[in-house]
Write a structure and sequence with these properties.
Number of helices: 4
Helix content: 25-40%
Shape: globular
Number of domains: 1
Distance between the termini: 10 Å
Structural class: alpha+beta
Order of helices and strands: HEEEEEHEHHEE
CATH architecture: Orthogonal Bundle
CATH topology: Arc Repressor Mutant, subunit A
Number of strands: 8
Strand order of the largest sheet: 1-2-3-4-5
Largest sheet: 5 strands, antiparallel
CATH class: Mainly Alpha
Strand content: 25-35%
């Protein structure tokens, strides 16, 4: 049971998140690799930065402005349309059913949230 809990909990190395394991998703922040149900995902740099920001803040809402900085580095003036497109592509790649998203949820008027994974 302890091993399952350890695998479902984000691992930190020197104060930084190094690996996230939960449900069917694994994100290795050092190698910038993402696996879903054991298969390696091909993500664009922008998709990876947005997913990493969401996963690092799992369980908390990340504002549109914060996520837009991942799209347009150094600027929070990124287009909401570009952000929505990026979130849609991520959902298609990591969700079992992208139309019934349960990993990346929308918080209307606030932003997006990566839901914490529960071990069952």
């Amino acid at each position: 049971m302890e091993a399952l809990l350890r695998r479902a909990t984000p691992q930190r190395l020197e104060g930084h998140l190094s690996v996230y394991l939960g449900r069917d998703l694994m994100v290795n922040f050092h190698s910038r690799e993402v696996f879903i149900r054991g298969d390696r995902l091909r993500l664009s740099n922008v998709e990876y930065r947005v997913l990493a920001k969401l996963v690092e803040n799992a369980g908390r809402t990340v504002s549109h402005e914060q996520l837009s900085e991942c799209i347009d580095r150094g600027s929070a003036k990124g287009s909401k349309l570009r952000l929505r497109s990026c979130i849609r592509r991520l959902r298609q790649k990591i969700e079992k059913d992208p139309y019934l998203a349960d990993l990346i949820t929308t918080r209307r008027g606030e932003g997006y949230r990566f839901e914490r994974c529960n071990v069952t």
